[in-house]
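chain below, 625 aa
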Amino acid sequence: MGVPGEDAERRGQAVTDEGPTLPQPPPAAPAEPGAAEVRPYPEFATPTKEIPAKAKPGWRDGLRDIGRGMEFGAWAAALASIPVAAFVVGASLGLVQILVGLSTMVQEVFKTAGRAVMVCLLISFWCAPPMGLAAWLIRGILKRFGRPGADLATRKRRRRRRWAVLAALATIAIVAGLGATIALNRYSTRAFEEAAAEVDAEDPDWRLDDLMATREEIADDDNAALVVADVFNMLPESWPPEQVDAAVGRALDADDSRKLGEETAATIRDEMDDLADAVDLARTLAEYDRGRHELEIGPKVIDTLLPDTQNSRAVARLLNVDAIRLAEDGKLDEALDSCRAILVAARSIGDEPFLISQLARTAIVAIDERPIRRVLAQGKPSDEALASLQDLLEDELYQPRLWWGLRGERASLVEMIRRIKDGETPLDEPVGNTPPGTTRIPGLMIVGGDYQMAVALRWFEDLLAIPDLPEAEWDAAYAAFQEKIVAVGRSRLGKYTTTYPYFMMPAIQGSLDAERRIRAVLGSLILLVAAERHRQATGEWPATIDDFDPDILFEPPHDPYTGEPYRMTYADGRLRIYSPGPNLRDEGGAYDLKKWTKKAGEDDVGTFAYDPELRGRPAVAGEGP
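prediction:
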């Protein structure tokens, strides 16, 4: 062994007091301008640590990629669904402050919010697996191309940022839902208050409760409806029987100026004799002039039953058969009393606030045209009986049937919406396992119910203005109203913001047609009775409408289809009084009910009378039983 210092010196290493040191590179000469950089000798370079090659991705890395993908998928789904659910929650909170005191409905509101949250969770659950699979595939491909992705710290930072954004959106959505609900409710309430104030100024009793309370009061001794109910209860079930109905049909098809066939007349007489007590009581209706059936409004309003109203039809049919029988027997004044009783059966419906009630009334009045015409075609009633009938016909002509019906429909629709909004109306479809009596109330209905009531009031203003117009302008006015409704239906939000008015507004074209037709029928009957009175007084039929004696007919009615006087012609011993009807074509008074209801063919509306020598002729042999 040598001396350490000597060995070091031989190896060119410096020796210090601390021991040998590594050889130092010679000092670099100052670089000349423009000279190339001189690198140090390799043996003097700083040693570097060799980085081993990274192992290929394993199955654990794949699971981590799937997990991160599922997390991203859940977040992406939540980004769309959570704000919506949060908006619903906020709206629900707004509903709670509206529904203070309605504990059942508050429960429904929170259930709605809970369902919204559950839907969001389900959406996130179903979106997470496919997103996780997609992330696994994409990350695997990227790693194959040398792009391993972000490190752990970056991923954590991104995760916190994503969920923070979602939390912020949810908070904003809750506030937006709460504010929108409160604002919508205030706007809805204000709209209804303004609309109601306008209606109150013209009709203070328009609400359903007030309307029902202010119906005409009629004492029992003057109430024809009580008689109608008693007569109906005396009739056999499913009256009339088939053979009687067939006999009445033959009588109506026969020539009014001729007697009935023996079999037909016998069938009618026998039936009237069997029902003598009911017939006698029904005839007393001629002593009344109005009536009122008591109504009980149903919980849904639209489920209100009208049994007594419909039963009036059966009583009118009984009196129709009785008038035919009395005319056949030559008891013409008594027959006209039965004709008046038919009118009273219709008038027993009174001012019922439903279009269906007033349609029933007009249908019963229409029954009266045939028996009146037949009675006048069988002989010469007294002027007193004719005058009493004429007075009742004139009074019925000017009754506001259409206005009563529309006014009641307005009150009914608004009340129905109010009951739904306030949770008073039980709906048929319960929510989950809710206890009995719990109602399913759409949130939009609770908030926008006042607005929908306001819309109903506005729309009915247009409808209630129609009866005040000349009848010839009704169709154009209603067509303009329908265009507005159609425009609402075509709009994107119209059916949702005006749901109940849009779907529950009555289609009144049928009511307009029925009212106009019954006015035409009543007008022609008034002129017919007045013409017979004029003939009895003067010996001649009036030549024109202007020829009526003012003491008999002070103001002749006008034709509701044209606004002009009725047409009046005389030929072959018959005086015909008629309106050209809906098609406005003068067809000489020709009328076919089956075609008229289809708005095709002959549709003149009117009646006719015979010269005295043609009345009460014998039945034609061989023309039916």
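Confidence is low (pLDDT under 50) at residues 1-19, 41-46, 51-55, 427-443. The chain has 21 helices and five strands.
thats it, cya
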